[in-house]
Write a structure and sequence with these properties.
4-stranded antiparallel β-sheet, about 0% helix
């Protein structure tokens, strides 16, 4: 399945297909080529319009490209632990955070992936996504299938939030633009 689709400054498109590759589409999608080779089989991708940096991750690490995917740099090697979700700070394109699925760890960088700090969360056993708050980069949210936890102090303390869909497996989260404390969630059976 397609995990991400991004339009670059020259109107070419980059598409990631979960664990199948990264593809650059040119000339309105008529021609395309692989830009991740057989090395990158991403779980997801983020794009920074400000400097055309593409960030992707898979089970082995986090990678970045500053040239539309022609060249990739390994930023964080994690062996075979599943990397689930990467978020870019709303206040600085150099601040990224990624969570690992099973060991209560997440990693944060303040220099676009050059150096990383390992941190942990104890409020839940498993996380499959991580988010910066859109208006306050001190707030981080971790989502599992049934729970959401939040830190308001860059990960020092975590608190369990009331699920917006109790008993439902959470798929996607987003924040209300008019009330940043309001979280919307979707599940298989409801929004």
């Amino acid at each position: 399945s397609i995990t991400s689709l991004v339009c670059l400054a020259d109107n070419s498109l980059i598409k990631t297909t979960q664990y199948q590759g990264i593809f650059l589409f040119m000339v309105g999608g008529i021609t395309f080529r692989s830009v991740g080779g057989e090395i990158l089989m991403p779980a997801g991708m983020r794009f920074q319009n400000s400097d055309n940096t593409i960030i992707t991750w898979d089970s082995y690490g986090v990678y970045k490209s500053v040239d539309a995917g022609n060249n990739w740099k390994l930023c964080l090697a994690r062996g075979t632990s599943s990397n689930n979700g990467l978020s870019i700070s709303p206040s600085s394109n150099s601040n990224w955070v990624i969570c690992l699925s099973s060991n209560r760890k997440y990693y944060i960088t303040s220099n676009a992936g050059d150096n990383w700090s390992e941190l942990s969360y104890a409020a839940m056993n498993y996380a499959n996504e991580i988010f910066y708050h859109p208006a306050n980069s001190n707030y981080l949210y971790l989502k599992s299938y049934y729970d959401i936890v939040r830190t308001q102090d860059n990960g020092v303390n975590w608190s369990l939030l009331t699920s917006p869909l109790p008993g439902e497996a959470l798929e996607l989260l987003t924040f209300s633009p008019s009330n940043q404390d309001q979280i919307y969630a979707s599940a298989n059976s409801c929004l």
